[in-house]
Amino acid sequence: METVSLTHTAALARLGHALSDETRTRVLLALREAPAYPADLADALGVSRQVMSNQLACLRGCGLVEAIPDGRRTWYRLADTHLAPALDDLLRLVVTVDPTCCSSDGCTCS
Prior knowledge:
This protein is an alpha+beta fold. The chain has one domain: Winged helix-like DNA-binding domain superfamily/Winged helix DNA-binding domain (Arc Repressor Mutant, subunit A, Orthogonal Bundle), CATH 1.10.10. Helix content is 54%, strand content 15%. The protein is built from 5 helices and 4 strands, in the order ααααββαββ. The strands form 2 sheets. Strands 1-2 form a two-stranded antiparallel sheet. Strand 3 and strand 4 form a beta hairpin. Helix 2 packs across helix 5. The longest helix is centred in the first third of the chain and has 14 residues. The N and C termini lie far apart (31 Å). One of its GO terms (molecular function) is DNA-binding transcription factor activity. InterPro entries: ArsR-like_HTH, HTH_ArsR_DNA-bd_dom, HTH_Metal-responsive_Reg, WH-like_DNA-bd_sf, WH_DNA-bd_sf. One of its GO terms (biological process) is response to cadmium ion. This is ArsR family transcriptional regulator. Pfam families: HTH_5.
């Protein structure tokens, strides 16, 4: 088993922060399918372009997505090829956890 370093814990904390917001989670899940332009992501997720811009800035700051200039536009993709399979693994894990346990109001598990 690999030794866990402060770098590992910091990276997991950033991922946890990113996944703590439903819109950011939806962005990551969309980008695991294919790179996209912010306007297309905003339309697909039903959020304003300003909200999308803010969420993409957060995800860039966390090091999870990267912006790729394309002429006058910029498209986004996951920053690491390991992230898509990790998200797939997390999705499989989520179905084994009681989805009614925790809500946006906080954890109700006892």
